[in-house]
Amino acid sequence: MIIAVDGPAASGKGTIARAIAAHFGLPLLDTGLLYRAVGMATVRAGGDPDVEDDALKACQFDNAALADPALRSEAAGGLASRVSVHPKVRAALLKRQRDFAGQPGGAVLDGRDIGTVIVPSADAKLYVTASAEVRARRRQLEDYDRDYPAILAEILARDERDASRADAPMRRADDADLLDTSDLSVDDAVQRAIAIVEARLRR
Ligand code: CDP
Questions:
Q1: What whole-number distance in Å separates Cα of residue 9 and Cα of residue 65?
Q2: Do 24 and 145 form a contact (C-beta atoms < 8 A)?
Q3: CA distance 192 to 173
Q4: Distance (Å, whole) CA 195 – CA 201
Q5: 80 Cβ below 6 A of ligand 1
Q6: Positive or negative: CA dihedral 174, 4, 127, 157
C-alpha cells in the first residue's frame, strides 16, 4: 500500500505523513530532505544552486547524510527549492524515491510531486494545504528569532517557485483528497487525514 502526501511548506504535511505512517505501520520517506541534502551539499562543495550541473554533482549522497540537523533549517529549505527546479536533479532523485515506494508492504512518501509524478498509482493521495498567513505563523512559532513579514515573504516566494517550475510543479493530483489545515489543531488535522485515507482505501 502506497500513500502519497503532498502540499506546500508548513501546511502540516510532514506531521500528517508521520502520523499516517505510524497508524498503518508503514515506513516514511520525507522527500523534501533529499532536495535539502542536495542544496546543502551543492553550497558546501562551492557550487551554485541555480546552476543545474553544480546541483547534479551533489545528488550522489548516501542516506546517512539525511540525518544532518542542518537540513531542517529554513536556509536549507530555500536551497532545496532552488535545486529542485532542475530537471536533471529531479531525475537523479527519482529512482531513490520509486525504490522506497516499491518496497514490500508499501510506504508513505511526502513531498510536492508524489501523487503527480513519483507514484501516480498510489492507493491514497492527500494534498495538505493551509493559508500562507497561517503557515507563516506556524513557522514563526518554530523560530522566534525571525520576524513574521520575512517568514511570510519567504513562504510566498517558495510557493511561487515550487508551483511555477516547468518540471513537476507542486499541484494537487486530480484524484488527491484535499485537506485544508488552516483552522485545525494538529490532533484534528491528523485525525481528519487518517479518516480520509481510510475512506479512500475502502473505496
Ligand atoms: O518542510 P517544508 O515543506 O518546508 O519543505 P520540504 O518538504 O523539506 O521541501 C523543501 C523544498 O524541496 C520544497 O520547497 C520544494 O522546492 C522541494 N521539494 C520538491 O521539489 N519535491 C519534493 N517531492 C519535495 C520537496
A1: 22
A2: no
A3: 19
A4: 10
A5: yes
A6: negative
Q: Is 35 in the pocket of ligand 1 (CB under 6 A)?
A: yes
How many angstroms is it from 81 CA to the middle of ligand 1?
6
Q: Which three cell numbers stand for residue 88?
A: 536533471
CA distances from 4 to 34, 73, 128, 149, 179 (A): 16, 24, 11, 31, 13
- The Cα–Cα gap between 69 and 171 comes to 28
- Separation of CA 103 and ligand 1 centre (Å): 22
| Cβ of residue 116 lying under 6 Å from some atom of ligand 1 | no
What 8-state DSSP symbol labels residue 114?
I
From the CB of 84, is ligand 1 less than 6 Å away?
Answer: yes
Taking the alpha carbons at both ends of the chain, their separation in whole angstroms is 14
- Reported as a single tens digit per residue, the pLDDT across 75-102 is 899 899 999 999 999 999 999 999 999 9
pLDDT higher for 109 or 78? 109
CATH class of segment(s) 2-202: alpha beta
Is there an atom of ligand 1 within 6 Å of 90 CB?
A: no
Q: Kindly give the number of the ligand 1 atom that is closest to the alpha carbon of 74.
A: 4
Torsion angle in degrees (nearest 10) through CA of 142, 124, 171, 154: 10
What is the DSSP secondary-structure string of 161-189? Answer: HHHH-SSS-----TTPEEEE-TT--HHHH
Whether the predicted model's global pTM rises above the 0.85 cut = yes
